[in-house]
Design goal:
The protein is an alpha+beta fold and about 150 residues long. The chain has a single domain (about 5-140), classed as Nuclear Transport Factor 2, Chain: A, CATH 3.10.450.50. It contains three helices and six strands, in the order H-H-E-E-H-E-E-E-E. The N and C termini lie far apart (about 45 Å).
């Protein structure tokens, strides 16, 4: 921990990182989303492993661009600090609306993000994030395979 930080400040910064992570998804700001990771970070979701910022950014660009709107909620932040690293967990509730003319039709998922965080010169970043999807409701939610385009 540097002299300018405190455990409370670190927890607040990591919580802000978690919020930036999900807000970037809703804004379709794929580069900002990838910037929440270290350069060689890892993201795991539904049997896929995305390694490095370009691959991490390409995942939601491929998977979420087909939705007219999304809304991701990051809640119940739990952060365990250990110097310049931390283990964090936050709950996810996400709504995916394919057609803005029919907002009553949507694919919803709930799950848990498990995160390994590291302090970098540019602030806290994710080294690894694993999403465990616990439930889904409404329309089907699925990921595209690497190299596979999704239907618009």
């Amino acid at each position: 921990m540097s002299p300018q930080t405190s455990p409370d400040r670190d927890r607040a910064d990591i919580s802000d990182l978690m919020i930036t992570f999900v807000r970037s998804l809703d804004d379709q700001a794929w580069d900002a989303y990838a910037e929440t990771f270290v350069e060689d970070g890892v993201f795991e979701i539904m049997g896929q492993q995305r390694v490095g910022r370009p691959d991490i950014a390409a995942g939601p660009a491929r998977d979420l661009s087909r939705y007219a709107r999304t809304q991701h909620f990051s809640t119940n932040h739990q952060i365990n600090l250990d110097g310049d690293s931390a283990e964090a967990r936050h709950d996810l509730f996400a709504v995916h609306v394919p057609d803005s003319a029919h907002p009553e039709r949507h694919a919803d998922i709930g799950g848990v993000y498990r995160c390994s965080c590291v302090r970098t010169p540019r602030g806290w970043r994710f080294a690894k994030v694993r999403l465990e999807i616990l439930w889904n409701a409404g329309s089907d939610f699925a990921l595209a395979r690497h190299g596979e385009a999704t239907a618009q």
